[in-house]
Design a protein that fits this description.
This protein is of the alpha/beta class. It has a single domain, classed as Class I glutamine amidotransferase (GATase) domain (Rossmann fold, 3-Layer(aba) Sandwich). The chain is built from 5 helices and 12 strands. Strand 10 and strand 11 form a beta hairpin. The protein starts with a strand and ends with a helix. The protein binds glutamine (GLN). Residues 46-49, 79-80, 83, 105-106, 133-134 line the site of glutamine. The active site is at 79 (nucleophile), 169 (charge relay system), 171 (charge relay system). InterPro entries: Class_I_gatase-like (IPR029062), PdxT/SNO (IPR002161), PdxT/SNO_CS (IPR021196).
Length: 187
């Protein structure tokens, strides 16, 4: 059984936990350094990246998570979690700065702060529902990064070795395929 951590400082934590349990994982809520022991993978959920960064600093989790990322621990960042992983952010200082992508925050304008689309993702499957909430997008990727999905001409899902990042919230639907791809193919 895989032992998966979910960063549990803020955001869509419970939904990831439920989906990981459906996928038969043991789940650890990561709130302090000791919770990072012996994980097979870590999920950085969506929420609000500025708030998460403040909490990561307060609980002294930023450096330990960055070290694990550099040592090869598989990590999946969804929405704000993708913002945390990105090496570069448009107009902001990066946070963990480990995944070789540049990310712009709040890419979809005020009128459409939230919407759902169906994505065809060749390596994962067809018609996968994706919920975008004040979503970021990937503006450019490094040479070793695979672009897995685009929506409206914008990159919304990419993989850089053991890092997976998406603009949207796969955990807010009933479709487990993207999380399953992470757990079975990357972790
Ligand atoms: N707009 C948020 C941010 O910048 C991310 C939104 C989300 O995670 N749903 O952190």
């Amino acid at each position: 059984m895989k032992r998966m951590g979910v960063l549990a400082l803020q955001g869509a934590v419970r939904e990831h936990v439920q989906m990981l349990e459906q996928l038969d994982c043991e789940v650890v809520l990561v709130k302090q350094i000791a919770d990072l022991n012996q994980l097979d993978g870590l999920i950085l959920p969506g929420g609000e990246s500025t708030t998460m960064r403040k909490l990561l600093d307060r609980y002294q989790l930023l450096e330990p998570i960055r070290t694990l990322a550099q040592q090869g621990l598989p990590m999946f960042g969804t929405c704000a979690g993708l913002i945390l992983l990105a090496k570069e952010l448009v107009d902001y200082e990066p946070h963990l700065a480990v995944m070789d992508v540049t990310v712009a925050r709040n890419s979809y304008g005020r009128q459409v702060d939230s919407f759902e689309v169906q994505l065809d993702i060749p390596v994962i499957g067809q018609s996968i529902p994706a919920v975008f909430i004040r979503a970021p997008h990937i503006t450019s990727v490094g040479e070793n990064v695979n672009i897995l999905a685009e929506h409206d001409g914008k990159i919304v899902l990419a993989q850089d070795g053991h890092f997976l990042g998406c603009s949207f919230h796969p955990e807010l639907t009933a479709d487990t395929r993207i999380l399953e791809y992470f757990v079975t193919s990357i972790v």
